[in-house]
Amino acid sequence: MTIELTINGEVRTVTADPRTALLDVLRDSCRLTGAKAVCREGFCGACTVLVDGEAVPSCLRPIGMLDGRSIVTIEGLAHFETPNPVQQAFIDHDVVQCGMCFPGMVMTLTAFLETNPAPSRGEVKAALSGNICRCTGYERIVDAVLSIQDMRKVSGR
Amino acid sequence: MNAVTDLASVVMDLPRRDAQDKLTGRTRYTIDNIGADMLHAVQVRSDVASARILEIDCSKALAMKGVRAIVTHADAPGLHGIGVADHPLFASDLIRYHGEPIAAIAADTLEIAHAAARAVLVRTELLPAVLTMAEALDEHAPLIHPDWQRYELLKEGAPRAGNVAWEAHVTRGDTDAAFARPDVTVVDDCFRVGRQSHVPFEPRCAIASYEDGRFHIQCSTQVPWTVRNVTAKVLGAAASRVRVTVPAVGGGFGLKFDCTIEPVAALLARKTGKTVSLCNSREEEFLSCLCRENAEVRIRSAVTPDGEIVGREATVLMDCGAYGGEQIFLSTMTAHTLGGNYRLGAVKLNSRAVYTNTPPNGAFRACNGVYNTFFLERHTDNICAAIGMDPMEFRKQNVLGDGDIGATGQVFQGDVLRPMLERMEAISAGAERRDPADGRLYGRATTVGTWFVFVGPSAATINLNADGSATLVTSGVEIGSGTMVQSLPQIVAGILGIHPADVIVKTADTDASGRDLGVGGGRTTVSIGSASKMAAEKIREQILEIASEMLQTPPSGLALRGGRVEIAGRPGSGMTIAAVVQRAEELFGPMSGTGNFTAPGVPSLPGCAAGHFIDAIDIPIFTVHDCEVAVDPDTGHVDVLSYRVVQDVGVAINPRAIRSQIQGGVTQGLGYALHENITIDEHGSMEQSGFEHYLLPLAQDVLPVEIVLHEGAPSIGPLGAKGAGEIPILNVGATIACAVARATGRPVAELPLTPPRVLEMIQGHAKALDFAHISPVWHANLARR
Ligand code: FES
Ligand code: FES
């Protein structure tokens, strides 16, 4: 089956079994390896991308259902030299460890802050219920998110 | 001269240089380098726990289109192991655990490889499976390794017998006399823990090729040199024919401290002549996880009315699974963990690594220490209850201090634990008690822990570049802890008077860097750090010598600062380091320095330790944890209300990074204490194979840990540093267990404290543990050949 979709602003035609997970198309066909395949069951969030602006686990999205949709991956979120405020806050607070969960964390939190630009600590934690990190123990991630002052920059991407 | 390196030039909250790429998805872990331009491999694994292999028929699989090679035991007959070479790459005549690799297939695509794996026919004759340590120790138990006496011994001197893979003993003093004293109270306990799975987000994976007659393995490992040596051993190749390189590693936690799938990829690469990738699926990663082992203990102590521990005897059983692996080494650690923390009169410890027909266990952050600290601290609280002494007073009175001897007779230096306990007491006294007073049971506990830095050989080379930057070449690997991007460049930069950003840190390539024991055991900052420091100091001397001539000033009057050699006290004077390098090139060529390090060896009492890999711990590290809990009497749910850590760090080279390690380590410990548990079903397979059933701590489960870094304890580490990343998990299980025991008034004897287990305890239905397979007579548990 041939599917046409937009990935990071570029229209692409993908020929694949419609049941193929978006994650595999991104990683294997497009070689966009920022989204990580960790659990493949929707629990960990490491594969999170934006589909029409909504943060979703790409391991659970069959490509056949995405015809005409717009996908943004971590590679398309911001140029690496101009990180978005979420990424910048994580750099400034030195929260990264092994880093495997962070592309997904960034996608989830970027989408979250667009709808809730001034969250409480509890809301940030609730927003992370689908993003697991094995290394950091989360609290510093939450501290970093709460430090973000200029939300407009997040939504202005 | 060079009143070296003022600490202030090294200590800083240097941010990570790898953060930007990790946050923008640009970092390529090994798993991200697997692509369509290589073959894809899968392993054929057994679906029974114990059987004799009668026939392996690969003909149908081999005939499938796109299948490039199949390998079995016949292709890699060598055995490897730690202490004992008992482990083949693929099952040969016997299958010893559910999930054991039998063959591996390389094919054009993963789908074809999987299809071919299903087409491999393995004819077996089922054998009885020994799934628990109690069964394994039964005198009529079948032998899991019938040939155990014929195995090559890689280290001599340990008692072994049948299903007991290894024993490590401590015998110091006369415990019989201690227990016979009329004035002592004898406290006797049994405790038990299950397995913990590491769940690194990047599974174990390897990409291998065969180039110019040599293997090149790129892999996600903590131990490039172990991968090199084990690959050579099982493949029967010279170690010099194996090159291992390691990109960023997506988490390790000890799981990647062993060589596992790497030789399989190498074997297939040689057989096909092509690049081969092999990567565990998440399910395989779970089912073949070299978990923190399940363990059991019987411990008893003789204590005087005023709280002196005059005698202690304990027997610990550690489940190796089907092959000895790390547990053989870790049996040593019982002397320093279960036998640690406190001054002991007479002591006898027996640490037994036991074979079972279950997936092999391995090393997990503060391995052995986590459960032995739980056993010890709960036992300590039981002692306090039995003699009516306050647990804090008891600890302050008995913790090891300056000049005290440990279990194996090593003399400890400095009073560290007692002042740390006092600091914790002061912090807790100043904090508000968080009892929710809502009907839940409130408890609080403080525990102590002793861990160590696993030192050992490391090498470093530094090349000073023409632009004044330095390239540091070691076998270090960045597994997430930050040592490669923070403490190492900070140490080197501080000594050379340059900015850490100007220290290029090369990640492990066994063709470029010297041998190393690996990244783990909190050793990177200490061992690799010491070797790097030595290399940097050699360069520093060269710089000063040349500059001294150029500036007509004795080296003692010079300072290295801001990338310059200056005349001391005259900022901006002198010249750039680049100018010194230029002069050096005219005189003798480019500047470089090498450094090395190994365990200095601390004396212990001769004759009191047997079967040990190390008799004393070179760099002890101490920690004090404190927590408050609320236990719901209706559901058994444990809520952690506060968590505090006072950790001995020697010198904190990067305080912010250490705090991150503590927050992360405590969180992993909370998982272990409360819900992470791998269980084995009646077929010998793990019952948790994914995130749905193996519960990791989520953001909403955790709390900010209150942290105090305790500086100033003696350390032979560079600039007085100690490893800080391992120990944070050490006594989380112990602290939660002690707090829950105090909250509920019940003797907590098992982890994790899942709601059903806690509820059973509260309702008084939990049976007291009393292991029939660990004799109360200490001597009766010793291996007899
Ligand atoms: S890989 Fe998609 S949620 Fe875990
Ligand atoms: S940083 Fe390793 S999983 Fe989050």
TrEMBL record, chain A:
Gene3D superfamilies: 3.10.20.30, [2Fe-2S]-binding domain. InterPro entries: 2Fe-2S-bd, 2Fe-2S-bd_dom_sf, 2Fe-2S_ferredoxin-like_sf, 2Fe-2S_ferredoxin-type, 2Fe2S_fd_BS, Beta-grasp_dom_sf, Diverse_Oxidoreductases. Keywords: 2Fe-2S, Iron, Iron-sulfur, Metal-binding, Oxidoreductase. Residues 1-77 form the 2Fe-2S ferredoxin-type domain. It comes from the Bacteria. PANTHER family: OXIDOREDUCTASE WITH IRON-SULFUR SUBUNIT. This is (2Fe-2S)-binding protein. It comes from Shinella lacus.
